[in-house]
Every structure is written in C-alpha cells, then in structure tokens.
Amino acid sequence: MIRLTAELTPAGTSYLATGQGQPVVLIHGVGLNKEMWGGQIVGLSSDYQVIAYDMLGHGASPRPASGTDLLGYADQLLELLDHLNLPQAAVIGFSMGGLVARAFALHYPERLQSLVVLNSVFNRSEEQRAGVIARTAQAAEHGPDANAEAALSRWFSREYQAANPAQIAALRQTLANNDPQGYLTTYELFATQDMYRAEDLGTISAPTLIATGELDPGSTPQMAEQLARRIPGAKVAVLPEQRHMMPVESPRLVNQTLLQFLQFAHSRQNHIKGIVA
C-alpha cells in the first residue's frame, strides 16, 4: 500500500507526489480532495510521476479569494508545476477538475504535455443548467453537504454504495467538512463555466482524451462528444455501465483507459520531435 505524506507549495497548495517518469497531475472534483485519486496513484505510479493536489477551497489548500475565476484555479496548477520544476505535465481533470484542466490548456499551452478531461461538463441544456443553479442556491443556504444524498446517488451505482458503506460514509463526511465559502466559490464556477472560452478550444494542440461514463447523468456521453469535436484530434472514450465517480468505483477500468492514452500521447510527441529534429 502506498502511503504518502502531503507537502505544500510556497503558496500553500497541498499535494501528494510519487513514482518516477513523465509527470501526470490529477485534479479532483468539487467538494472532494486529492484523496479521491488513490486508485489512480496506485495504478499509474509504476510508470509515471503522479501528482495529486487539493484545489483551492478544498482539503488542506487555501481558500480562493472572493471573485476568483477559472484562471485563478489554473494559476494554482501553474504554481505547483513551477514549485516542482516541471516544464510540462500531462493533466487529468475530473468533473470540476476538467474545467480547470481546460482553462490550464487554454492559458498555458506550453506547459501541457497532454490533456484528459474525465466526467466533466460542456454545453449544458437549459434544464441541466437550471438544476445545477438550484443546487448552488441550496449549497449557499444550507452548506456543502446540502445535496450530499442526491450527489452520491448520481455518482455511484446502487451496488457499489451497498457494498462500500464505510467509503460512502467517509465521502459524505468529506462533503460536510468542506469550507463553506471555498466550496461555494468553486461550485458557482462549476455551475456556470461549462462554456468557458469555448470559441478558443480549437487552439488546443496537445493530445487530448475526453472520457465519461455511459450512465453519467450530469457529464453525459453527448457532452463528451460535443467537447471533443471542438478540440482538434481529440479522442473520446465512453466507459460502459459507468456512472460519475468511475475513477473511484472502477479504478482498473479507468486506469487502463488512461495508460493507453498516455502511451499514445507519448509516442505521438516523440514522433513530432523526430520530425522537428
């Protein structure tokens, strides 16, 4: 079992790092923290340097300043890479982390080796948008765990919830323990920024994978396909019978998808370097 001690950047970002090789950075979803990536840390660290960190307002990282936008969250990742002296990294973002990864790709393309967006949102329908705005209002009034039960039902299959009650209870506690203002600032961005600089997505040139679960009700296969169409050469993977929290519920399946893509991205970059040389 890999047991890691969290470290801090000068700006206070809490992160875990293990393994050697090309760096792969993992960005969690809203209300969660770096601990959600346990299955990926174990599954990827034999081939890569794996780095997981707490987003602003989450875990042991500092609260975002009032009015922080997605660029502020991308800047947090930039400071982490600078602290680790990493000129480039593969960036994997889950849900809200996918929005941060997209913003990072747009603002700092020279620092991006490859991009993976997992179970994330794009071009919500009016009905979907109204639902997430309503959940934002509930969180503002009642706190981070206002929607916990409904969220867990969207995130996991009923079988997984029944088989893993301790883990589900721990996740429920993680949601409740979030800093209310940090959570709300982040959730408001999650609720409103699915089309963040959508007109510029065609400028992303790094190898890109957009993946989600077949049964993910909030980050649908249709969203994944629409987003991938905006990014030149992007690949799409829809994992059968998977819901939103597929990195946690089915880590081996997700890791297989990630490893295949990362190997493809690495070979493509080596091919391009050979042509340039």
Radius of gyration: 17 Å
Helix content: 40-55%
CATH homologous superfamily identity? Alpha/Beta hydrolase fold, catalytic domain
- Kindly estimate the percentage of residues that lie in beta strands according to DSSP: 5-15%
**Oligomerization:** single chain
**Order of H and E elements:** EEEHEHEHEHHHHHEHEHH
CATH class label: Alpha Beta
Overall structural class, as computed from helix and strand content, comes to alpha/beta
Biggest sheet features? 8 strands, mixed
Number of domains: 1
- Going by CATH, the architecture would be 3-Layer(aba) Sandwich
Distance between the termini: 42 Å
Please outline the helices and strands:
Blueprint lengths: L6 E2 L5 E5 L4 E5 L10 H7 L4 E5 L16 H14 L5 E6 L1 H12 L4 E7 L7 H17 L5 H8 L2 H6 L1 H12 L3 H13 L15 E6 L7 H10 L4 E5 L6 H4 L1 H26 L1
Helix pairs in contact: 1-11, 2-3, 4-8
Describe the structure.
GO terms for molecular function: hydrolase activity. Residues 23-250 form the AB hydrolase-1 domain. InterPro entries: AB_hydrolase_1, AB_hydrolase_fold, AB_hydrolase_sf, Epox_hydrolase-like. It is a single chain. With 277 residues, this protein is an alpha/beta fold. Strands 1-2-4-3-5-6-7-8 form an eight-stranded mixed beta sheet, with helices on both faces. The protein has a single domain (7-276), classed as Alpha/Beta hydrolase fold, catalytic domain (Rossmann fold). The longest helix is centred in the C-terminal third of the chain and has 26 residues, at 251-276. It is globular. β1 (7-8) and β2 form a beta hairpin. It has helices at 38-44, 70-83, 96-107, 126-142, 148-155, 158-163, 165-176, 180-192, 221-230, 246-249, 251-276; strands at 7-8, 14-18, 23-27, 49-53, 89-94, 112-118, 208-213, 235-239.
